[in-house]
Amino acid sequence: MPEGPEVRVSSLYVNEICKGRAFTGEVVKSAVSKCSGVDFSSPRYSITSESRGKEMALTLECLKDTKNKIRVIFRFGMSGRFRFGPASEIHKHAHLMFFTHEEPRNVLMFVDVRRFGSWHVVAMEEGGKKEKEEVDPEEKWGENRGPDPMLQYALFRSHVLENLTDSIFNKPICEALLNQKFFNGIGNYLRAEILYRAKVTPFSAARDVLQPLRDETTSCPESHCPDLLQLCFVVPSEVVQMKVGFGKTLTCEVADEDYERFIAWLQCYENPGMNNLVDHNGRTIWFKGEAGPMAPKNRKSRWKRRKVVKEEDDAKREELEIKDVKLKEGKKNSRNASPGPPIQVETETKRRSKGVDAAALRKKKRNAISEEVEATPVQDGSAEFDQLPIAKRLRKRHTSTGH
């Protein structure tokens, strides 16, 4: 799932793509998306983006009439991302599309393969008439979403420390870190990295961990020995600087070496030598050492640790990929070939499914051979006898001796 850094990278990507570009026409929604359409149309309009935590906002503003504008909030779900490309090559999982005015036409697409992402209009002003949904600029985000730890660090820190009486801080710190009301943008891999660097056991009481930080007056997010709240700024900021994240094709094509650099950056999440445990919400937390006093009872680890790929395995991996391609081509050719008559093979399993007794079937065959042998007028040792099949010769000898 895209977390705060990935959404931030997406916002920077959209701003870079849309800078100096004009878009035109209506905003097109796919037929399969369950989200409501975006009621906006303009001969020429601009797109700007901003993000806060796990939410990203696009502002569509008419270039001739600045009062004609809307603001659309996106949540990426499990696989949401933005892509930009030719209008003739629209992604099959694109669910909201913004077409450029330039020729040849291009399109900015919100792509969501699993369709868990969503969008909604939270502010609108058209023709000088303010709609009911328009709110103060500081509140143009989803409900129960706190300040961004990267972009609003001072506000984020005070918001957490001033609300430690909230019931969410009765829970283990690893579960509190996923609460978007206080830790907006922090997700599963970020909480593992933050707790690991802070040397905090994941199932310690959140209030006990955060209470000592109230005595500290610093508002600087960076220091030589950052505390847990400062790490909520430092760790995501490092991911943004790499411009990659957990989700290789989140915004655009990312080089393999860049993604491998991100995997190497992870110190705890899915790393060999680390432990993992399913928390009370069913999410897997990775950590080193003891789990902590509030660890769930009778809970076991869920995920296997990430395997370290060695350089000598590259040749073997390439060989397997070649075999896989050949296998797919073989299946494709077999599908295109003209179908022949079906081959009927009656196996022992099929006979059993039909209720046929294998022993009775074998006995029936032996009796048939015996009847055929007895009716055969040949004597043992004759030329005609030698031409009989082995089974018939044995049966003939058996019946002739009277056994």
Order of helices and strands: HEEEEEEEEEEHHHHHHEEHHHHH
User: pLDDT average, as an integer?
Assistant: 81
Which strand order do you get reading across the main beta sheet?
1-3-4-5-9-10
Structural class: alpha+beta
**End-to-end CA span:** 78 Å
Number of helices: 12
Q: Which band does the percent of strand residues land in? A: 15-25%
Record field, number of beta strands: 12
Main sheet attributes: strand count, strand direction, barrel closure: 6 strands, antiparallel
Write down the Rg: 34 Å
Portion in helices: 25-40%
Shape by Cα distribution: flat
**Low-pLDDT regions:** 126-135, 246-252, 308-313
Note down, in words, how this protein is organized.
There is one protein chain. This protein has 403 residues and is an alpha+beta fold. Helix content is 33%, strand content 18%. The chain contains 12 helices and 12 strands. The protein has helices at residues 4-18, 153-161, 173-176, 188-198, 206-210, 228-242, 256-265, 313-336, 348-353, 358-374, 383-386, 390-400; strands at 23-26, 28-29, 41-52, 55-62, 69-75, 80-86, 94-99, 106-112, 118-126, 129-130, 275-278, 284-287. The strands form 3 sheets. Strands 1-3-4-5-9-10 form a 6-stranded antiparallel β-sheet. It is flat. It starts with a helix and ends with a helix. The model is unreliable at 126-135, 246-252 and 308-313 (pLDDT under 50).
What's the short story on this structure?
The protein has 403 residues and is α+β, with helices and mostly antiparallel strands. It has twelve helices and twelve strands.
Can you give keywords for this protein?
403 residues; alpha+beta; 6-stranded antiparallel β-sheet; 33% helix
